[in-house]
Design goal:
elongated; mainly alpha
């Protein structure tokens, strides 16, 4: 179940975000001036709002398998995985908040901007910038992404240091995490002018991270209910010890 949830979250978010990119020029439009964003959003109508709703909740779904992962790996008491699960769930929640502002906050701003006079538009643009930096750049893009990277990097290290997951999941997880982290240059540049930015980081990082999530899910699905190699070794040792002590 945990594996299928990872796969479902990754695939459904990819579909929803691709639709958003085709209809709203996301994520490039996030760095456009307020008038451009507000006008484009207003022109998108109800269909665009529902697209954002789908993007938000398909990503939010990721928080469920993240919390279930330790149990799926039969490592319920592993403090590292349990802490990572909490961090990953917090990441999903922060990103969900960032996405949902496009459903509950931005529509009202876009409507006021479209029907307002010059002074109203100036005020709305200031309000837009404030909520965009707070809910988008800080909560969703900075905290949400950094905590997501912390979770995936931790899972990758666990995979490399134990038999809980295949080693290639560990190496690819670390690579995807580092690529995704590079997107923070673009986020920090919104607050610190001149901060170094690698333009492809957003697309390359998020795509590789999403593919890794799907791969993690496939690994769990294929393994099904089979115990990990570490648990099999422990079980074999316990059976041998019992056999030795049997008269």
């Amino acid at each position: 179940m945990t594996g299928w949830l990872f796969v479902t979250a990754a695939v459904s978010f990819a579909v929803a975000s691709s639709l958003l990119s085709a209809t709203f020029d996301w994520p490039d439009i996030l760095r456009e001036p307020a008038p451009v964003v507000l006008e484009s959003f207003h022109d998108g109508g109800a269909g665009l709002i529902w697209t954002w709703f789908a993007v938000a909740w398909t990503y939010g779904l990721l928080g469920v398998p993240v919390l279930l992962l330790a149990g799926a790996l039969r490592r319920h008491r592993d403090p590292v995985l349990r802490a990572a699960g909490a961090i990953g769930a917090a990441s999903a929640l922060l990103s969900l908040i960032g996405f949902l502002r496009w459903v509950f906050v931005v529509p009202a701003l876009a409507t006021s901007w479209a029907g307002g006079d010059r002074q109203t538009r100036i005020a709305v643009e200031a309000a837009w910038t404030a909520q965009h930096q707070f809910g988008g750049a800080m909560l969703g893009e900075h905290l949400g992404q950094v905590l997501a990277v912390a979770w995936s990097a931790t899972v990758a290290v666990v995979a490399l240091r134990s038999a809980a997951l295949p080693g290639w999941i560990g190496w690819t997880g670390l690579a995807a995490s580092m690529l995704y982290l590079l997107n923070q240059g673009d986020v920090l540049a919104t607050a610190v002018p001149g901060f170094p930015v690698w333009e492809p980081a957003g697309l390359v990082g998020s795509t590789s991270w999403g593919l890794w999530i799907a791969a993690l899910g496939v690994v769990l699905v294929k393994r099904g209910g089979r115990p990990s190699a570490a648990l099999r070794d422990c079980s074999s040792s316990a059976q041998a010890a019992t056999a030795i002590g049997t008269p």
